[in-house]
Amino acid sequence: MLHIKDLSVSINGKTILKGFNLDVKPGEVHAIMGPNGTGKSTLAAVIAGREMFDVDHGEISYRGQDLLEMAPEIRAREGIFLGFQYPVEIPGVSMANFMRTALNEKRKYLGLEPLSGAEFLKLMEEKKNLVEIHSKLTNRSVNEGFSGGEKKKNEIFQMAMLEPKLAILDETDSGLDIDALKVVANGVNKLRSSENATIVITHYQRLLDYIVPDFVHVLFDGRIVKSGGKELALELESKGYEWIKKEANGVAAN
Amino acid sequence: MEDKSNDLLEEVTGGEYKYGFYTDIEMDQAPKGLTEDTIRFISARKNEPEFMLDIRLKAFRHWKTLKEPRWAQVEYPPIDYQDIIYYSAPRKKEQLQSLEEVDPELLKTFEKLGIPLEEQKMLAGVAVDAVMDSESVATTFRSSLAEKGIIFCSFSEAIREHPELVQKYMGTVVPYTDNFFAALNTAVFSDGSFVYIPKGVRSPMELSTYFRINAANTGQFERTLIVAEEGSYVSYMEGCTAPIRDENQLHAAIVEIIAHKDAEVKYSTVQNWWPGDKDGKGGIYNFVTKRGICEGENSKISWTQVETGSAITWKYPSLILRGNNSTGEFYSVAVTNNHQQADTGTKMIHLGKNTRSTIISKGISAGHSNNSYRGLVKTTRKAENARNFSQCDSLLLGDKCGAHTFPYIEVGNRSSIVEHEATTSKISEDQLFYCLQRGIDMESAIGLIVNGYAKEVLSKLPMEFAVEAQKLLSISLEGSVG
Questions:
Q1: CB-CB neighbors (< 8 A) of A98 in chain B
Q2: Which of A86, B272, B372, B473 fits a disulfide with B73 by CB distance 3.0 to 4.6 angstroms?
Q3: Are B448 and A72 in contact (CB < 8 Å)?
Q4: What is Dmax (Cα atoms) for chain B?
Q5: b/e for B87-105, b at 16 or more Cβ within 10 A?
Q6: How far, in Å, CA of B149 to CA of B144, rounded?
Q7: Rounded CA gap, A91 and B455, in Å?
């Protein structure tokens, strides 16, 4: 589904990703872990198409297409979803209106008729139940005045609405209490299928107790320095990132 | 568009005038320039009673003593007032035979606005099929109003049919001595609308100029007068949300509203005249004086305006709150793009006790445009317990545009409370990217964000107006972020 090969990315002349490789197949959940400032969020932003980054080298193919040639809104309509670390507020635009616009633009792109108001409301209720959101958050302006937990739940709700093929969750666990974390993780788990894939970017192992990954990658200094199964996350938790840093520097020294 | 402005220039400046001044009765146009003769000509052509000619001449003599105001935050070359044609009878535009002959750009805009096909034809000047008989619609409409004693007609008709009402109220809110453009309008006004709601009557429908017979081609010097008698109510809408490309360069209109005891008037307008092209060539100069007076106790007047057109807008719909416990409201969205300039706002003059006013102004600037809010809130010595709340927000798109706020506050007594809040913000890259990532393209994203920002004002518009105004906002800002 997603093949990233030898990707180098910089911003304002500073290289952040340095020869990054990753392969994701349908049905898989990949966790990308690593200390702060190693390029985790940059990776998410580049896949989603944020223009402030320069891709200096390498390629990304997504379902057989050259992803780097696609505009960000086309990537979204083709099934890429980014759960933001810091969801932005859009005052005066109701969540329902926002989602309906997004959903209908996607449907138009796929050659489908737009959903009617009634169909849309029905779908929204269904998805709210699926991700266990019972608040009136869809009547409120996009993320405006939402608590940290509400913002993250709202990301998962949007993911449920848009049914992505590839979801990237960027530090979705940051700032969540344990109850909110469970809600978010349950939502992600319910949306998992053999057709879609998820990349979970996280700093802590905690989230991976609830979203069990097939693969864990450790990102350090712009590249993956260690990959493994879910046990790797536990090992990191007990040994800390220093261990990886030493190992990575050792590799570099050789 | 450049061609159009050149045509206009030629029409105004070039060409020899073929006919003498008084002799040719067939003539439907005054020679260019402004003299007492021009005014006598206009008044005669309209078969006006003597009193109207007198008012026009007084206004003209006063106007000659005035200087054009230049205090607004707008720039434009000097206007030669002797180089303008002040009267041109409504002429039928050349009719096109089918929509295929219409400028495709215009059709694209119609489509985005969702205007029905028959209406598109009418707006673009294509011969309309019998399907839409607007005259008959208008006739049914007027007879149901007449049953309630409501008068809704053109200003010229009102002068002829209801001279006593016109004489009683015209110029009582905006006298010709008010300002340069008000004097000019009073001297040469061509036509406009007249609304009279009798005591205790609630207008059963929104009055819209769209339905008025002869609403088209009222010309560049319009005049509107709305009188609401005791305990009456009316919601009046002016303007057209379709992009009519009026070719008059200078517009100077007057709107007067009088609300008696317990009466309420809602005035909504959407203005989208030709703003000129991307380089700032052409476009309408819109210098308007709009004012209402809450004459009686517990009366209420609210202005709601959406301004997206014109090269230059100079407009301050104001209210005088004379009656005790009267209420004034001003809700405004002003959009400027490319090289447009807008200097707009309001004046709330509190004279009566316990008077209240609310001002919500939302400016949106894009391109190289300049957008200014200018407002005065004044409470006099007698206006005990007067209250005002003002909120003036500016939204910037890009870094070449300007937003300016000029609030003036004069408080004349100790019991008044005047609050003013102002914010300036930009559409952030983060907001746009968030929308893009959900599959919403750039133009729709800007439309969403801008409409969200202006929601407080748009929600005050009558329903059918609101929907079109929302689309209009997006269209006005097309190509402003790239």
A1: 435, 438, 448
A2: B372
A3: no
A4: 70
A5: beeeeeeeeeeeeeebeee
A6: 9
A7: 9
pLDDT: which is higher, B32 or B452: B452
DSSP B460: T
Nearest CB to A106 within list B428, B439, B455: B439
Report yes or no on B124 lying in a domain: no
Burial of A19 (0-12, 13-18, 19+ CB in 10 A): middle
Tell me the β-bridge partners of B233.
B202, B264
Q: Global pTM?
A: 0.80
Question: Quick check: A118 contacting B, CB < 8 Å?
Answer: no
Other Cβ atoms less than 10 A from the Cβ of A196: the count is: 19
Query: SS3 of B137, please?
Result: helix
Task: Show the domain range for B301.
Answer: 2-89+146-429
Query: What band does B130 get if pLDDT is binned at 50, 70 and 90?
Result: very low
CB–CB contact A91 B453 (8 Å): yes
Chain B: closest CA distance from residue A47 (Å): 10
CATH fold group of domain A2-253:
Rossmann fold (3.40.50)
Question: Is residue B380 included in any domain, yes or no?
Answer: yes
Task: Identify the pLDDT of residue B22.
Answer: 29
Burial class (CB in 10 A: 0-12, 13-18, 19+), B116: exposed
Q: Most confidently modeled of B43-47, B220-224, B329-333? A: B329-333
For residue B198, being part of any structural domain is answered with yes
User: Is A88's CB within 8 Å of B449's CB?
Assistant: no
Instruction: Give chain A positions within 8 Å (CB) of B437.
Output: 48-49, 72-73, 76, 81-82, 84
Mean pLDDT of B325-341: 91
Nearest to A73 among B430, B439, B448 (CB): B439
Cross-chain Cβ contact B431/A72 below 8 Å: no
- Give the CA distances from residue B420 to residues A172, B304, B380, B461, in Å, rounded to whole numbers and listed in that order: 40, 19, 18, 23
Q: Quote the number of domains for chain B.
A: 1
Chain B residues interacting with chain A (CB cutoff of 8 angstroms): 428-431, 433-442, 444, 448-449, 451-456
Chain A with chain B: Cβ pairs closer than 8 A = 72
Report yes or no on B137 lying in a domain: no
